[in-house]
Fold this protein.
Amino acid sequence: MFNRFFFLFACFVFGYAYTYAQNSYNFDFETLNATTGLPEGIHSNQQSEYLFSVDSLIRQHGKYSVSLEQIDQNAKFGAFSFSFEPRFSGKKLTLKGYIKTENVSDGFAGLWMRVDGNSGVLSFDNMHGQNLKGTNDWKEYTISIDFDEEEAKSVYVGALLVGKGKIWLDNFHLLMDEKDISLAPVSKKAQRKADLDTAFLRGSGVQMSELNKIQVDNLTNLGMLWGFLKYYHPAIGNGGFNWDAELFRILPKVLGASSKSAFSTVVENWVDSLGKPVTCDTCNKSLKADSSIQSTPDYGWIFQKNNLGKTLTAKLEDIKKNRHHGKGYYIDAVNGIGNPVFKNEKPYYNMSYPDAGYRLLSLFRYWNIIQYFFPDRYLIGEDWNLVLKEFIPKFIGAKDTAQYTLVCLELIARVHDTHANIWGRNDVLERIRGTYRAPVQAKMIENKLVITGYYIDTLGIKDQIKIGDVITKINGEDIARLIQENLYLTPASNYETQLRDLPAILLRTQTGQLPLEIDRDGKIFTIDMKTFPANRLDMRLDYDPNPTDSSYKIINSNIGYLFPGKYRNDQLDGIRKAFAGTKGMIIDMRCYPSEFMPFTFGSYIKSIPSPFVKFTSADLNMPGSFAFGDLLSNGEVNFNNYKAPIVIIVNATTLSQAEYTTMAFQSSPNVTVIGSMTAGADGNVSQISLPGGILTAISGLGVYYPDGTETQRKGVKIDMVMHPTIKGIKEGRDEFLEKAIEIINGNKTHSTN
């Protein structure tokens, strides 16, 4: 349970944060927001499932307490939190708070606290071990976690209710090393100039509406120059400037520049104000060997002949030559892995609709992250420099929160990376797409939208619509037209994966009914499909179609079957025994592995080590440059390995770690891969925060087969390409599984070496 709720908290706090000055945490809940009526600075996952409210009658201290109450018996948990950037020093964080409970069952109540760093969660506790349940009067409870001053980026404190019942919370206190947090010494990190510059936290003050051609051209150059300086100028790399704030300071002057030469004068003065970099004798020496370089930087148009003034260009060349190199204030890399970490990128969560300056910041931030740190930028398929110019009017023209969210999604979709989307629970996007869902599974099969299953076990639904039915229209709109209209807002590495995601998007609505036109064996009719909130539907069936099954079993009496979505490494000995003497093994990789398998399970199916992958990663000594690392091998000398034929089944659900695991297993000569194109997004994920709480990510490493074949966009190598058929769906057959059995029974193996 700890791991499951830890994951839920990760999803909950990933999307929300509020930054407050030290000594202003409102931990007694006494300061209420005039608009919401809730305590200032607090966030809850308040939905229809759990009610979060202020109570002025039942309280332990002061005028108010807060309460959480389950009002939907199917709900899993309710929680609230305060979150802030730590600006203090110390070793041990302690949260004390009073809790009163009423009929808590099927779970527990507790305080919770978490510290995040650039590489992820550093420490966490949620009182699970204290097992607080039942009915209890006010009592103070305590949790403590370690605090790493150098690594800590965000702190979250709050309370939760898992399961049924109601709880009240009051009078919280946060301590550092057993002293009130207000007495904690200020950390050295908080004394950097970039951290101390808080001039624009409430807005940029920049006004923009219709832009003329000169302004668009100048802003395009500014976006490219702003990103180059951000990652190359030593003063910025060392945290000497709040680079978001500096954008807002220069924008009015750039908007007022009536020509390219006037623009060059403005930005040259700006560059001069940053200071001249000192001579860097080690910059070029620190570069990786030429033989490992996969791609070199693209600086956009800033060094293009006759684009900027000669003296400005010379100064930029000097900055490039004497650049910041290595880890910096805005960029880092995960130790031992190498994917980028985008540090100190404020998400500005309190700006649900960022003003024009912040919307432009969102575009500049994202565009430059892709420009300098996306290892697969060369696979985007269009000139990324032109994309910046195209989107400047779009971001400025976004008239409200919905338009801003959609233009962010459109930009994210242009990088063609299945890891790149708007993640977390984005309430704006949820409302746009619709909070109600049809209770049926549907997939694009033979270019038609076909019913393949049900999310809810309701007889009325199954009488109304059948497996194998083809949906021809939704709300009177043809499916083909709806797909084309939504492709540009469906981020994915390839078309197959867009088609994987689109049915779930198209079958959402704002109401409790969704009109569908159905083709059943040539008979056309219309139904009003009842829809449900997502929490009422068993959506896990998309990734675990047989929830009660084990991770492995014997099928057809003599074939081993493995479902990595439930596999645990501690099951490997049992699998060895169960699969001993079987005619073959089927690994159903139409899922996301629940454990890391390439080396543990890989050693079981291989007799000797062999390489299966190589990576590219960003060279922080020359941002925009990417270099290959060494080949990575799996397997070990093991003559008791599994020697019978192995068939791996893949499709567009096979994503990231599933693709990586497939590559690792493919390096065994007795493995055949069948199925359809995979999601085409491998490599460790790097998160990106954009103004207004837009949370996205990219594949942070380039992933290649030993022969240099990319997996990004293409997916894994497939020996036998196949797709399901409508006929097979109607007959309840798994045609992929049938083909895998046929291959094993025919003993047709394929070597990928």
Remarks:
- Residues 213-424 form one domain.
- Confidence is low (pLDDT under 50) at residues 1-23, 749-753.
- The longest helix spans residues 213-232.
